[in-house]
Structure formats: structure tokens, C-alpha cells
Design brief:
alpha/beta, Rossmann fold, 6-stranded mixed β-sheet, GTPase_HflX, metal-binding
């Protein structure tokens, strides 16, 4: 499909044109032209009336299939612009949802995208009904009043059904998560701006070959794989990428997926260090806003500056220093900022940081394990080594092992016939 893009820059904050064009390409659009304007938002058309007439002339000259705004449009603005231009008009969030629809493969991802779409359509349908009642024939998708009212009822019904289905998925995931904790896995969630290299990092950590493309929102389906931290069992989960000013309806629709970040032991925030500092700063702040909304900033946070192979060591150090200062100014608690190249499998700094952070996690506690049956000692020690850290062993009639272990593993150890107690 062919499209004309429209960007309205606020006098206080410019829209990132490069990112908007990348969104258009990711959705499969051929960009015929990009129209830009710097002004405050016009209440009726978002852009000014003069700029709208300019777009009207371009439509005649270029014959696009759609006009796509880089700015979010209110339902009223959407109807006004469509009525004036007599062509299909969508905004940034409808564009993002189109990409989501193309990338969704699992049942859960498809349900989440459908829910987000319905939540987006709801105010549009309400606006259509309001206009019809006022005598304006700007129906929704060519529908009359009765059809629009019926569609509104269908949207509400379908949203309720989807939420129930997603609750079932959430319950199933909770069972799996508890089982993972019982068998002693450390949970690491990859978070960050879209196209930062999260999927490539998952592949490097877990020695996998998950699809990782240089496109926005390649990952919509949650992917979890095993890896080890200093020989200890761990799981790494890739999550949907963030974007500037992520609207609440998308966060809500994808909450069950983003919940992997909420439930993780460690959050690994991935940034592309090869980008200009202004872009790194913008994407870091956008990511922090989403993590704040998810109430995930109380977790151990490691920032991984990825793609260090695409720039110089001096540039990486300068950006790391600038990021440390920004983190301090914003009052964000960060365990460490590390430099990596997921593509080149250069993960030394990250592995060292994960090793360091592991036994500071709340799920680890110091225990004294008492074993009366000597034949069980090797098996118990092997289990502890896979999930914790042995500090000292005292052999005797009763073998005493002092170790850090995960609380979730207490049942597994007691089933082996050993006694656990906190050392005095």
C-alpha cells in the first residue's frame, strides 16, 4: 500500500522522523511523501487548516491509499480529517497495531492485538454515534446509526470474552512460573526499546536461533529459554519492545506478556549503544516510563549497552558515563551498566554482573542443611550446586552444609530427607 506520512512537531518536542519512517516500512507501506509542520496541536485537524489543504493537493497528485499521522489523533480529529480529505486516515497507534497484527503468531499474541484494536476502536465508535445523533452522516466504516450501535455492543462483548481468555492464559503461566521457582530457576526478563537487539541477546545467552530481524516489533510472542549464570540454572524471557509514549490501552492489552518483567528476578534493559546519544537518552527515558508504569523499578536492574561492535571503545565509554549521570539525575536505581555485543557473543561484562547480583536476590537465603544418611550427601550437594552456593561443609555423624539456596527449593530438599535450618 502507498501512503503519505504527516508529522506535526510540537515547538517543545520534535517527532522522530526516522523512527516514523521505519514504522511505515515495517508495516509494509511505500512512502510517497512526508509532510511536516511545527505548531501546537490544532483542535479540529491536529495540523493547521493550511497544511491540510497542502495534503489535499498531494492526494490528487500522488494518489495514495492512506494518510498516516505520526501523531495520535483524537476520535473527533480522525473524523474531521477523513471528512475533509475523503481518504482513509490512521494515526501512529493504528500503524503500530497493524505491525502487531502482522507479527502475532501465538493465540495469546493474537488475542492481545485484537483487544488493543478493540480498545482503540471503542472511542471512535462512540464519536460516530455522537455525530450521527447530531445529524452528521460521518458513520463508522460506512455504517448507519443502528449498525454502529450494534457494533459498539459487539466490541464490548468481545473485549469481555478476550479478557476472560487472557486470564486463563495468565493462570496457566502462573502455574508454570511457580514450577520454575520450585525447581530453582532464576528468572531474567529482557526489556527495552523495539529493535535494540533483545532477541539476538536471548540467542547469545541461551545458544538459540530465535528469529531476530532488523525490524520494529519482531517479537510479540513471549519467548523463554534456559541458560546458566555461573553454572546455576536460569531462564531468560524476551518481551515485546517499547516505544515512545506507549499508550495505556496497548500496555493493558499486553499486560499478561509484560507481566514476565514484573515477575522476573532481574530486569535486563537493552539499549543500542551505536546510536547517537540523543536517541539513547530518549529510548532510555521511554523504557523507564514503561517499567515505572509496570511497577518493575524495584527489581535489580542491569543496563546492557548492546552493539558495541558497531562503534569505538571511546564512544562506548563516553556514552556509559553520560548514562550513569542521567540515571543518577533521574533517581533510578541501577545495579550496573555493561557493554556487550550480542551478535558477536561478547557478554563478559554482563555475565560478571549477573554472577555478582545472583546471591543478593531475595529468593536466596543462607541455610544450614543437615544430612544424617551419608549416602545422600553427594546427591544433595549436586542439587545445591545447581541452584545455590555451598559455603562450607562439615563432615561427621551428621553432615552439615552451609549454603545459599533458593527458598523455592526447600520442598525439594526436605523430600530428600534432609533437615534445613537458619544458621545461628
Amino acid at each position: 500500500m502507498k501512503a503519505i506520512g504527516v508529522i506535526r512537531h510540537s515547538p517543545r518536542k520534535a517527532v522522530n522522523r526516522e523512527e516514523f519512517e521505519e514504522l511505515l516500512k515495517s508495516a509494509g507501506y511505500e512512502i510517497l511523501a512526508i509532510v511536516e509542520q511545527v505548531r501546537e496541536e490544532h483542535p479540529k485537524y491536529n495540523v493547521g487548516p493550511g497544511k491540510l489543504q497542502e495534503i489535499k493537493k498531494l492526494i490528487t497528485e500522488l494518489n495514495p491509499d492512506r494518510i498516516i499521522f505520526a501523531n495520535p489523533l483524537t476520535p473527533s480529529q480522525s473524523f474531521n480529517i477523513t471528512k475533509e480529505l475523503k481518504i482513509d486516515v490512521i494515526d501512529k497507534w493504528q500503524l503500530v497495531l497493524e505491525i502487531f497484527e502482522q507479527r502475532a503468531h501465538s493465540k495469546e499474541a493474537k488475542l492481545q492485538v485484537e483487544l488493543a484494536n478493540l480498545q482503540y476502536e471503542l472511542p471512535l465508535v462512540k464519536e460516530a454515534i455522537r455525530r450521527i445523533k447530531l445529524g452528521d452522516r460521518a458513520g463508522f466504516k460506512g455504517m448507519g446509526e443502528y449498525q454502529t450501535q450494534q457494533y459498539l455492543k459487539h466490541i464490548r462483548y468481545r473485549m469481555g470474552r478476550i479478557r476472560k481468555e487472557l486470564e486463563k492464559v495468565k493462570a496457566d503461566r502462573e502455574v508454570k512460573r511457580k514450577r520454575r521457582e520450585e525447581v530453582g530457576f532464576i528468572l531474567v526478563a529482557l526489556a527495552g526499546y523495539t529493535n535494540a537487539g533483545k532477541s539476538t541477546l536471548l540467542n547469545a545467552l541461551a545458544d538459540e536461533e530465535i528469529e531476530a530481524r532488523m525490524q520494529m516489533f519482531t517479537t510479540l510472542d513471549t519467548t523463554t529459554r534456559r541458560f546458566t549464570i555461573n553454572g546455576k540454572r536460569a531462564l531468560v524471557t524476551d518481551t515485546v519492545g517499547f516505544i515512545d509514549d506507549l499508550p495505556p490501552f496497548i500496555v493493558e492489552a499486553f499486560h499478561s506478556t509484560l507481566e514476565e518483567i514484573i515477575r522476573a528476578d532481574i530486569v535486563l534493559l537493552v539499549l543500542d549503544v551505536s546510536e547517537p546519544w540523543g536517541e539513547i537518552k530518549r529510548k532510555f527515558l521511554a523504557s523507564i516510563e514503561v517499567l515505572k508504569e509496570l511497577k518493575a523499578l524495584d527489581k535489580p536492574l542491569i543496563i546492557a549497552l548492546n552493539k558495541n561492535d558497531l562503534t569505538s571503545k571511546e564512544d562506548v565509554q563516553d556514552k556509559k558515563k553520560a548514562l550513569k549521570e542521567l540515571v543518577k539525575r533521574k533517581g533510578v536505581v541501577v545495579h550496573s551498566i555493561v557493554s556487550i555485543s550480542a551478535k558477536k557473543n561478547d557478554l563478559n561484562e554482563l555475565q560478571a554482573s549477573l554472577d555478582e547480583i545472583m546471591f543478593t536476590l531475595p529468593k536466596y537465603r543462607l541455610f544450614e542443611i543437615l544430612i544424617k544418611d551419608k549416602e545422600k550427601v553427594p546427591k544433595v550437594m549436586a542439587l545445591i550446586n545447581s541452584i545455590g552456593e555451598i559455603l562450607d561443609v562439615k563432615y561427621g555423624e551428621t553432615t552439615r552444609i552451609f549454603a545459599y539456596i533458593q527458598v523455592g527449593m526447600i520442598k525439594s530438599l526436605t523430600r530428600m530427607g534432609v533437615e534445613l535450618k537458619h544458621p545461628s
